[in-house]
DNA sequence: GGGAAAACATTAT
DNA sequence: TTCCAATAATGTTTTCCC
């Protein structure tokens, strides 16, 4: 943390350059923070990266000032109102406190670095970092003493520690060791939650009971067992929920553990003086904001400022902050964790060479398609991520009417998105696919269809499933709505939140499963369907609808792209539509594509309506907005990027309940 | 005005 | 010499369209 908050001390400019590198981390106790700060600053100063950081910093400052203004404007009546709101909410949250589970968080010590040392013992005792000159993934404890740490670029690390040894990342190795640790975890909680290769959460309640052991004893035993199996040390935290267990595992790192008893008094005492930055989900920005706008530094102060928090933040953010103040966290084990997106991105030296950029795009599309096929995924939202030479990040997205997975389809749409941004000098391109077909959480493929499972979002101990953007204070008057909501749900929503709620219609009987190269087997796993790929390439000649999504009944892109030949003879004399007579010359490629889409949609709709009585109610649903006419479906024109302008911010946002 | 999609931002490993 | 990553999730704000 920088010592001087308000800049203006010109003698030490580095003190106002806020990096994450001086934040307290295990193994960095004896570090000369002032020196690290200065070197990081000097290495960065004047770079494009630095300039971008300054832009971001100014943006945050603006946010803080805005919030301070809002606080200043609160009347006594406002304050008293929001305090009532807060007090009520605190009681409600307190009522959800669950002290019946014992959670353990395991965190491998300097995992990648430790694995590398294991396979090359000569590294032992020397400062070493896993990563490259541009980025470090993990630093061992010897290197940390120099201020070298994860997420720091290698060239700065070398400046801090000239003898630093660099070892390239080798995920195969880490995965192997990770698997070994997980075999151990399995013995204590078969449903343990892996947070990453080197971290996991275990509900050890049953293990304690079965072995007649305390949480601390189980932690000791587990750590010993991990060491025996792998030769690697880890640290553990034991607490009544995941959020607290995670905080605890950091306390006696490395190779140590800390137990927080399942006792309300103990929890409150523990939390009271804990800096908010120790909480997972509170990062540099939130820490900064809460400190400068509210004077909040410790978790206890969240409660002391509860009224203001409720007045200024969205409901979900305020709930999260209050939960932190109470030391609450998740205690349930979600049945399955579904992937929501899949992405890749690559950094390169900045260029505006369009041929190069398109080639990168093609490479990424190919890689992404391979990854998607591996997991049997098809998605309908494609997001292009661009980082300009000046580190400005832009995202451009399209949501298609058809689920895609092939590199050709991905590239086709990604190219369109990129094209709209040219000319541009980029240093990174990335792409992400989301909105998967048959999301395993029971969300129907048809995104417009509302079902109960759509309505009930997630398991949420805080009961904050309602519109987050509703100002928190308004919920006192919304009691009526809440009651209605509850009454409309036949079952306690905690029971329904997990994926055990599945519509039988979503099983493998889905008629168009072949359309996306994957089927959903009964156990909810995506299984690759051999031959589906070829099948989906088949055209729709002879009005066969085999390859077309019958639920959405759309002029899908796959069909269109595979029907280019068909598209040819839709045009009489090469410019006049055979079906409606509209005239479009061959050079109007996109327009013609859209036009044929339109006729296809028409046709499908007709066929669909004649088939309706044979389908289940769910399959019958044809969203009318999906029947696009040529004039709809036009690509939206992006306004020029608004980045760089600092607009007044009315509210701030923080993710809530992110204590995974 | 409201809902969906897009854009932007934060966090974590 | 080199000059700030990749992946995923989630939340807020803005834009678009009906």
Automatic annotation (TrEMBL):
Reaction(s) the record says it catalyses: DNA(n) + a 2'-deoxyribonucleoside 5'-triphosphate = DNA(n+1) + diphosphate
What EC number is given for this enzyme?
2.7.7.7
Question: Please, which domain of life does this record's source organism belong to?
Answer: Eukaryota
The organism is Actinidia chinensis var. chinensis
EC class: transferase
Q: Which InterPro entries match?
A: DNA/RNA_pol_sf, DNA_pol_Y-fam_lit_finger_sf, DNA_pol_Y-fam_little_finger, DNA_polymerase-Y, DNApol_IV, PolY_HhH_motif, Rev_trsase/Diguanyl_cyclase, UBZ3
Quick one: where's region Disordered? Answer: 540-560, 607-644
Query: Where does this one sit in the cell?
Result: Nucleus
A molecular function (GO) held by this record is: zinc ion binding
Query: Could you identify this protein by its name?
Result: DNA polymerase kappa
* Entry keyword Nucleotidyltransferase: yes
């Amino acid at each position: 943390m920088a010592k001087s908050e308000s800049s203006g001390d010109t003698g030490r400019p580095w003190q106002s350059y806020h990096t994450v590198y001086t934040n307290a981390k295990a193994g960095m106790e004896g570090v000369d923070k002032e020196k690290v700060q200065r070197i990081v600053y000097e290495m960065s100063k004047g770079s494009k990266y630095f300039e971008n950081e300054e832009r971001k910093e100014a943006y945050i400052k603006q946010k803080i000032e805005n919030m301070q203004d809002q606080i200043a404007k609160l009347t006594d009546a406002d304050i008293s109102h929001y305090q009532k709101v807060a007090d009520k909410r605190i009681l409600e949250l307190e009522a959800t406190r669950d002290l019946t589970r014992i959670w353990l968080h395991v965190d491998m010590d300097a995992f990648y670095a430790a694995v590398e040392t294991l396979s090359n013992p000569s590294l032992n005792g020397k400062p070493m970092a896993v990563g490259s000159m541009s980025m470090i993934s993990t630093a061992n404890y010897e290197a940390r003493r120099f201020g070298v740490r994860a997420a720091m670029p290698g060239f700065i690390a070398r400046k801090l520690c000239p003898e630093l040894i660099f070892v390239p990342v080798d995920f195969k190795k880490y995965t192997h060791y990770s698997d070994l640790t997980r075999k151990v975890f399995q013995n204590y909680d078969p449903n343990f939650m892996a947070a990453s290769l080197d971290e996991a959460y275990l509900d050890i309640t049953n293990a304690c009971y079965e072995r007649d052991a305390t949480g601390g004893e189980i932690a000791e035993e587990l750590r010993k067992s991990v060491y025996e199996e792998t030769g690697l040390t880890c640290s553990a935290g034991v607490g009544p929920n995941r959020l607290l267990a995670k905080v605890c595992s950091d306390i006696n790192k490395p190779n140590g553990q800390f137990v927080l008893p399942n006792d309300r008094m103990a929890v409150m005492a523990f939390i009271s003086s804990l800096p908010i930055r120790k909480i997972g989900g509170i990062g540099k920005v939130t820490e900064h904001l809460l400190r400068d706008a509210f004077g909040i530094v410790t978790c206890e102060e969240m409660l002391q400022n509860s009224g203001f928090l409720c007045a200024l933040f969205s409901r979900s953010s305020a709930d999260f902050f209050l939960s932190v103040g109470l030391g609450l966290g998740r205690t349930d084990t979600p049945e399955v964790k579904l992937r929501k997106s899949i992405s890749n991105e690559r950094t390169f030296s900045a260029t505006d060479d369009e041929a190069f950029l398109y080639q990168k795009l093609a490479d990424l599309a190919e890689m992404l398609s391979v990854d998607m096929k591996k997991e049997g995924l098809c998605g309908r939202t494609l997001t292009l991520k661009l980082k300009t030479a000046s580190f400005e990040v832009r995202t451009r997205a399209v949501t298609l009417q058809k689920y895609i997975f092939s590199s050709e389809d991905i590239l086709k749409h990604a190219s369109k998105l990129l094209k709209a941004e040219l000319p541009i000098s980029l240093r990174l391109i990335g792409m992400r696919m989301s909105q998967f077909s048959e999301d395993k959480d029971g969300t129907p493929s048809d995104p417009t269809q509302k079902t109960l499972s759509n309505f009930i979002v997630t398991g949420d101990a805080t009961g904050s499933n309602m519109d987050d953007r509703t100002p928190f204070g308004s919920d006192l008057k919304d009691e009526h709505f809440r009651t209605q909501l509850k009454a409309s749900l036949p079952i306690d929503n905690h029971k329904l939140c997990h994926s055990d709620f599945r519509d039988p219609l979503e099983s493998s009987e889905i008629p168009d499963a072949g359309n996306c190269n994957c089927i959903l087997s009964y156990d909810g796993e995506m299984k690759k369907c051999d031959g589906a790929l070829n099948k989906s390439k088949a055209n729709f000649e002879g009005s066969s609808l085999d390859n077309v999504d019958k639920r959405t009944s759309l002029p899908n892109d796959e069909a269109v792209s595979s029907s280019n030949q068909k598209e040819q003879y839709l045009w009489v004399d090469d410019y006049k539509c055979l079906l409606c007579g509209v005239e479009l010359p061959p050079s109007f490629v996109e327009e013609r594509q859209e036009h044929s889409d339109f006729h296809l949609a028409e046709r499908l709709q007709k066929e669909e309506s004649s088939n309706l009585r044979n389908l289940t109610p769910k399959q019958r649903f044809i969203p009318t907005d999906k029947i696009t006419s040529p004039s709809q479906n036009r690509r939206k024109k992006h306004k020029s990027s608004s980045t760089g302008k600092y607009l007044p911010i009315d509210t701030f946002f923080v993710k809530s309940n992110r204590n995974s």
